[in-house]
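seq:
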Amino acid sequence: MRNALFGLVLALQFLTRIPIPIVAPWTPETRRWAVRAYPLVGLLIGGVIGLLAIYMQNVPAPITALAILSVWVALSGGLHLDGVMDIADALGSNQPLARRWEIMKDPQIGSFGMLALVFLLAWKAVLLWALLAYHAPWWWLLIVPALGRWTGVALLVLTPCARPKGLAWSWKQSLSGQDVAFALLPLAVFALWAPSVVVMVLIATVFVVLMRWFMLRLFNGINGDMVGATIEGGELWLLILLWSWWQFATVSPLGI
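struct:
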């Protein structure tokens, strides 16, 4: 139990900007529990933005969407956005593999990275706006951050690291496939109340499979940037899924 609590603290310290003045031990057990707690941290983030959405329900949808996205990014400190930008710069360079890795290590942000950041945030904002305008049920704001972080866990555990060093590699040494399943438990409990969460898990799994294939093909493995990019991409993927459902199956049913 003590390792589980320390793992939760590590996950909160790593994935959020919430100040927690506790020094948690960095051991294989605490790392394992930290990764298992990723979706729990996502539920916490989702709970905050969900409460914000409820509080601002009488505010115009565009303003509410921008406020939600701002708090969403602020809570995570934009941690995963860095991975999106690094990968965009590397792929946009059209350079050989070795050079792509050098570009990813460069702390400077290139034009492709900036474009990726702008379009990612723009798409998230517009999709949030649309879902708020459709008066979609509040629970999706809980699930998207949680399931997005689970996609990062799945990619980390199930994909080999490109190099035997770095933060992702050190975390991976303590993990197994059981941890991927264990991390789903909070969402499995939620699915008892909202069965459609099961469909979202399956869709998220498809995204992980695609990301794994692309990262192996383009980089021969993963690093921490790719885990972060998967979390951001997974959230966007799920928002697109939710918008598609509300647009085509609820707001504008086929044949009507």
